[in-house]
Amino acid sequence: MTTATPTRRTSRTPHGVHRRRSQIIALGLAAFGILASSYVTNALADRDQVIAVARTVTVGSIIRVEDVTPAQLPGDSGLAGLMWSEIDRVVGQTATTTLLPGQIVVAQAVGAPSLPGPGQAVVGVAVAAGLAPAAALGRGDRVAVIDAVTGGQGILGEVVSESTTSAETRTIDVVVDATDAAGVAVLSRAGQAAVVLLEDR
């Protein structure tokens, strides 16, 4: 009597399943590569961000935050610009040379403000509560000093500093044209001075 040998069946994974697995693995590797590349790129960008000039700043002018912008500097450029992380060393300082858009800011291009400049005068303006913006004014803010009683054309100037004289009075040091200094001083002494914050140029 002949005994039939059972046939062993081999389980096979369909070809389509192998293909899908390969595609999933490939997509995963591609996504990982993109993320890794993005991380490296961002890290390099942060490391190489320098301070560049956004708009022309004439020599002797105070540099405002709107005057500068971050820029990418290739590591092998050989240029030694101030890093964007050093922005506080630039804003509020004086341009020692005329800065042009696109120019990289170097340490020698900025210096401590020298006020008043030629043809200018610094006047302390005493203002009562309600006659100046509630928020403290910052160095370089453009303002107009006007007669709070009669109104009229204001005298343009830039804030140098601000201090609190009393609970109801603030003193704002403003640099103005030398020909306007006497008029501002008279308004301040009479208690009629109002300081209005103007829009940046």
From TrEMBL:
Write one Pfam family the protein is assigned to.
Answer: SAF
Known InterPro entries for this protein?
SAF
SAF domain residues are 48-107
* Protein name in UniProt: SAF domain-containing protein
Which species is listed as the source? Pseudonocardia oroxyli
